[in-house]
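Progress note, sequence design subtask.
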C-alpha cells in the first residue's frame, strides 16, 4: 500500500507526534509499504530530508500551538503526495490532530485514515463531554467542576487535593496537582494557557492504570509509576528514567478483568473505532475511575498502547499493520459504529 504518515503539526504534543511517526514509518516500510512522511505544518518530506525532522526524543516542556493549524492541514491534505495514497496513518497527537479537525478534513477529501472519525475524536478530546458519557454508561469517573470555580466551592464539592487541567489537551499538558486553596488560581491560569476551558477534578489517590483497545478487544492492563512525583505528568511520561511502566500490571485476575471491561465500555460509550487507550486511577479500595480515553495514543514501541499490545503477544510491526487494516475495514463498512446496546456492554473483552 501507499501510506502517508501524517505527524508533527504545531500542537503542544508535536514532539510526541514526531517520536511516534519516526517509529511507525520504519515499521510500515519494514512491512513492505510505500510510505511518505508528511509533517502537518510543512507538508510531504523528501526521503533525504526526513532525518532532519524525525527523531524519537521528546523535550522536557511541550511546544506551543500555531495560529491557524486547520488552514495548514487543509492545504497539506490537498497535496498530490497525500491525495493519492491508499491510507493516511495518523501519528498526530493533541490539538487539531486529535480533536476531530484533521479527521473532518480527511473525511471531506474522502481519504481513508486510521483511528476514529471526526465525531468520536471531538467527543473524546472534550473531557467534560466524555465524562458525562462515562456516567451514562455506568463507568465511574472522578467528580469535577469547570472553571471558573471559587476555592470554597472546590473545597466543598471536591475537596483538596484536586487536579487542574485543560479540558481539551492530552499528554497531561498544562496539568497541575493542587494541594491547597492558595495554589488554585495559579493552576487554573496555567491550564488556561493551553485551552479556554479548564477542568478541576477530584484527585484519586492510588495507582495509575491504563488499558489499550484494539479491534474492539481490550488488551493487557498496565501500571505506570511516576518516579518524579506523585502524578504521571508530562515529564514523567516522556523523559528517561522518569516512570516505571509494568505490563501486564500486577493485578489479581478479577481486577484486571474489571479494568478491561470498563475500558471497553468507555471506548464504546464514546463511539470510538479501531483502537484507543483508556486511562484510570485505581483507588486504595480497588475501585477504578476513568480519567480519559486517548483516540490517538503514543505509538513508539515503548509507548503505552504498544506495550499493552505486546503483553498480549502482538509485535509492534503487527500492531501498526492491524491499525492500517482496521482503517480499511472501517472505510469499507461506511464508518459503521457498534450498535447502541453493544456500546454499553463489555462483551468481547478478554483478560490479561
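Output:
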Amino acid at each position: 500500500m501507499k501510506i502517508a504518515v501524517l505527524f508533527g503539526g504545531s500542537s503542544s504534543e508535536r514532539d510526541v507526534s514526531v517520536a511516534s511517526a519516526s517509529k511507525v514509518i520504519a515499521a510500515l516500510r519494514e512491512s513492505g509499504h510505500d510510505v511518505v512522511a508528511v509533517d502537518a505544518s510543512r507538508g510531504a518530506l523528501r526521503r533525504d530530508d526526513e532525518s532532519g525532522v524525525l527523531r524519537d526524543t521528546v523535550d522536557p516542556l511541550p511546544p506551543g500551538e500555531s495560529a491557524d493549524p486547520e488552514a495548514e492541514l487543509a492545504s497539506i491534505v490537498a497535496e498530490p503526495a497525500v491525495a493519492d495514497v491508499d491510507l493516511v496513518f495518523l501519528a498526530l497527537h493533541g490539538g487539531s490532530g486529535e480533536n476531530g479537525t484533521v479527521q473532518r478534513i480527511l473525511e471531506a477529501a474522502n481519504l481513508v485514515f486510521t483511528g476514529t472519525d471526526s465525531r468520536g475524536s471531538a467527543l473524546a478530546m472534550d473531557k467534560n463531554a466524555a465524562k458525562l458519557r462515562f456516567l451514562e454508561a455506568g463507568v465511574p469517573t472522578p467528580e469535577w467542576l469547570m472553571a471558573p470555580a471559587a476555592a470554597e466551592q472546590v473545597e466543598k464539592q471536591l475537596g483538596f487535593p484536586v487536579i487542574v487541567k485543560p479540558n481539551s489537551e492530552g499528554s497531561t499538558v498544562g496539568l497541575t496537582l493542587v494541594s491547597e486553596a492558595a495554589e488554585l488560581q495559579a493552576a487554573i491560569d496555567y491550564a488556561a494557557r493551553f485551552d479556554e476551558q479548564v477542568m478541576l477534578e477530584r484527585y484519586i489517590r492510588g495507582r495509575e492504570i491504563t488499558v489499550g483497545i484494539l479491534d474492539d478487544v481490550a488488551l493487557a492492563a498496565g501500571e505506570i509509576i511516576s518516579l518524579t512525583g506523585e502524578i504521571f505528568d508530562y515529564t514523567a511520561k516522556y523523559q528517561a528514567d522518569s516512570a516505571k511502566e509494568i505490563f501486564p500490571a500486577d493485578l489479581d485476575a478479577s481486577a484486571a478483568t474489571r479494568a478491561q471491561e470498563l475500558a471497553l465500555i468507555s471506548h464504546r460509550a464514546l463511539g470510538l473505532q479501531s483502537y484507543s487507550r483508556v486511562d484510570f486511577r485505581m483507588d486504595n479500595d480497588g475501585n477504578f475511575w476513568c480519567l480519559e480515553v486517548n483516540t490517538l495514543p503514543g505509538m513508539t514501541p515503548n509507548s503505552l498502547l504498544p506495550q499493552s499490545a505486546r503483553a498480549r503477544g502482538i509485535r509492534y510491526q503487527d500492531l501498526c499493520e492491524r491499525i492500517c487494516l482496521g482503517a480499511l475495514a472501517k472505510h469499507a463498512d461506511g464508518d459503521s459504529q457498534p450498535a447502541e446496546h453493544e456500546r454499553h456492554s463489555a462483551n468481547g473483552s478478554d483478560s490479561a
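The chain has three domains: 2-113, 143-202, 206-343. Work on this subtask will continue into the next period as scheduled.
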